[in-house]
Amino acid sequence: MLDWFRRGWEHEDPKGWIDSELGGDVYGLESIFEEVGERNLPPPESVDELRQLLAEYLWLEGDDKGDFIRLGEHALRVRTDDDEVDLAYYFVDDDAAAASPDRLAFLLHDTWPLPADAGRSETVFSHSVPVRTVRLAPPGTDCTFSVRLCWQSPDLYRNLDLIGAIQFPGVSLPDLAAHLAVDDPGSHRWPHDVRLLRALVAPGEHDAGRALERYAQLPGYAPSPASLDRAPTHAAVHRETTDLLHAERPTESLIRLDTHIAQVARYIDDFFGFDQWFLFDNRWAATRPDLARSLLRYAAHWDPYER
Question: What 3-state DSSP class applies to 101?
Fold first, then answer.
C-alpha cells in the first residue's frame, strides 16, 4: 500500500492516474497528490510518514475529521462526504484480506448478488457483531438477519455508522413473512426497517421475497408510508404502501430470491444509484460465515476494524 502511494508521487495528472489505476473517481483522493506538486513534498519513506502526510493534506469533509483517516500497515480506511451522502473508501492489501475475511469479505466482494448456496446440514452460525433484536417467535435454533444499506437510515438519518443489523431469533427466512404479517400491539416500537418490511408483506403472505420485490418498486431516496410511525393495522399500512409503488419495477433494479437469502438492489436514480437490502438466515450464514459477519459488521460501523 505504501508503494502504491509512492507511485502516485510521480504523476502530473493525479486524477487521471487514479481513474486509470482504480477504474473511476474516488472523492477527494487526488488532493494528496495535487499537494505533492504544489508543495514539492518528498515521497513517504514509511507508513508513519504516509499517515502524517494524509492527515495534513488529504481532503476530507465531515463533522469529526480527526478520526476519519485510519491507516495501519496493511489497510487504509477513509471517511468523508460529498455534500450529499457519507462516503468511505478503503485500501486493503493481500495480507489484510487474508488475515481478516470476517471483517472484509463483503467489502471485497465485487459482484452482485452475493452467492446464494446454503448448506443443507450446517446451521450453526455465530458472530460477535452488535445487532438489534426483534422477537417474533419463541427461542429456537433458527435466526434471520436484516441488513438494509440505504441512502439515509430513518433511524438516524445517515448512511454510514448505522446502528446495526436486525436479527429475528427463532425465525428462518422462509417463515419470516408469516411472523411479520400480524397486528402486533408492540409493532410501533420495532425499528423502522422492520416496520417497513411488515408494510411490504401482504396479509396472509408467506414469502418475504415478495416484500423485497415490492421494495424494488418503491420510488425515491427514503420511501416510507406516512402512517408507518402511527401503529396502523397491518392491512391498512400494506394498502398505503402498495399505493406508493411504481406500476412496474425499474429495469435497473436487481433482485435475487433464494430459500435462505433474499437480496435486492433498488434503483433510485442515475445520480445516487442504488440502495440494498439483504435478508438471510443462519443456514446461509453458516455456509458463508465470513460474508455474513462482514456484512453485519458493515451495518454497525463504517470501519470494518472498529469492533
Answer: helix
Among candidate residues 87, 105, 73, the one with its CA nearest the CA of residue 1: 73
Per DSSP bridges, beta strands 273-281 and 132-133 are: unpaired
Predicted TM-score (pTM) above 0.90: yes
**How far is it, in rounded angstroms, from Cα 87 to Cα 207?**
34
For residue range 108-159, list pLDDT tens digits in order.
Answer: 999 999 999 776 667 899 999 999 999 999 999 999 999 999 877 676 677 7
CA 83 to chain CA centroid, Å, is: 19
Q: What is the b/e burial string over 2-35, where b = at least 16 CB atoms within 10 angstroms of the residue's CB?
A: beebeebeebeebeebbeeeeeeebbbbbbbbeb
- The residues facing 262 across adjacent strands are 257, 279
Cα–Cα distance for residue pair 84/73, rounded to 1 Å? 31
Report the SS3 class of residue 21: helix
Sign for the CA dihedral angle at 33, 37, 39, 42 comes to: positive
15: alpha, beta or left, given left = phi > 0 and alpha = psi -120 to 50? Answer: alpha
